[in-house]
């Protein structure tokens, strides 16, 4: 993990995935204070909200942390400026290829840029564009997902690019043995989200945490796209009535497209706003029936509420034991 830790400036190369409403100041600071690397989930935040969130996180930790920005955010460049003003050292761009000018805007202030690589060709393209590190995330992850599993992406991408930039593997990782396997394959570190949802420091509602503690891997299912003209990135979440509500929302937005009341960009933004609202209902308000319970398939390995420091310590102990066993 030395390479990943040096790149992040953290004790261990474990990023906490940016989960909207969950990855806020308390969890981010707790992960960084425990030696990992926290990421603020900007999501649909306004520049003013992000400004306050970064300042509040700085008040809770003097350790490095980063900010995750969504490429389709209409105020992306204003958000980048907020990060620059605060001297944020690492910015993650998620949700698509970086828009023209965004890479230069992020790196102008000396920040390191991390992007998601859902395929080998895109990984190579991003490296040529000047990206400093990659996250390879498989479809086992929670929230927005691609179509390929973590194990396949890791085998495809790590041998080709791990010598060029640090690569962090994500999706379906719940134990240290999994971390060890990807480090063995050339990863510089890993990113976990679901494993931290039930951390003591997580502000997620007690109902949300209980849903995680009760769930098994097969309960975390991907959403279905109902209209091919409306490209919707699948979202993995625990099964509940909220999934049916999303299907209805897609139909509603498709009808707006049909009638010419909205353009495609606006339609996709409506879908994003739906998810942000549905997730808030579950995470903050505790409505686990109608809200969105975004979770990865590693949810079955989340068995109790415990402090972040204990989660990271256990993961590292398991990983070290697995690597020692292989070396013996």
From TrEMBL:
One of its GO terms (molecular function) is nitronate monooxygenase activity. Keywords: Dioxygenase, Flavoprotein, FMN, Oxidoreductase. PANTHER family: 2-NITROPROPANE DIOXYGENASE. InterPro entries: Aldolase_TIM, NMO. Pfam families: NMO. The keyword Oxidoreductase applies. This is 2-nitropropane dioxygenase. It comes from the Bacteria.
């Amino acid at each position: 993990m030395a390479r990943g830790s040096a790149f992040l400036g953290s004790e261990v190369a474990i990023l906490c995935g940016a989960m909207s409403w969950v990855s806020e100041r308390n969890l981010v600071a707790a992960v960084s204070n425990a030696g990992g690397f926290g990421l603020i989930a900007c999501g649909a935040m306004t520049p003013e909200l992000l400004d306050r969130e970064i300042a509040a996180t700085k008040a809770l930790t003097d350790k490095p942390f980063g900010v995750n920005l969504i490429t389709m955010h209409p105020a992306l460049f204003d958000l980048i400026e907020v990060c620059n003003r605060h001297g944020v050292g690492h910015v993650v761009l998620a949700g698509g290829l970086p828009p023209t000018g965004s890479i230069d805007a992020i790196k102008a202030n000396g920040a390191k840029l991390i992007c998601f690589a859902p395929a080998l060709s895109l990984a190579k393209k991003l490296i040529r564009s000047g990206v400093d590190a990659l996250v390879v995330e498989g479809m086992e992850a929670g929230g927005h997902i691609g179509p390929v599993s973590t194990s396949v992406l890791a085998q495809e991408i790590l041998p080709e690019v791990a010598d060029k930039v640090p690569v962090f593997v994500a999706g379906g990782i719940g134990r240290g043995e999994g971390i060890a396997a990807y480090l063995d394959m050339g990863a510089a570190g890993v990113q976990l989200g679901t494993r931290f949802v039930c951390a003591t420091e997580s502000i997620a509602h007690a109902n949300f945490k209980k849903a995680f503690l009760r769930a098994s891997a097969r309960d975390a299912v991907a959403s279905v796209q109902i209209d091919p003209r409306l490209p919707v990135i699948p979202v993995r979440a625990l099964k509940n009535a909220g999934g049916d509500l999303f299907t209805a929302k897609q139909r509603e937005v498709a009808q707006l497209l049909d009638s010419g009341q909205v353009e495609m960009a606006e339609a996709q933004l409506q879908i994003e706003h739906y998810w942000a609202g549905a997730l808030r209902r579950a995470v903050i308000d505790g409505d686990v029936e109608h809200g969105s319970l975004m979770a990865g398939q590693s949810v079955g390995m989340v068995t109790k509420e415990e402090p972040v420091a204990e989660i990271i310590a256990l993961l590292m102990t398991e990983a070290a034991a697995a690597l020692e066993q292989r070396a013996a």
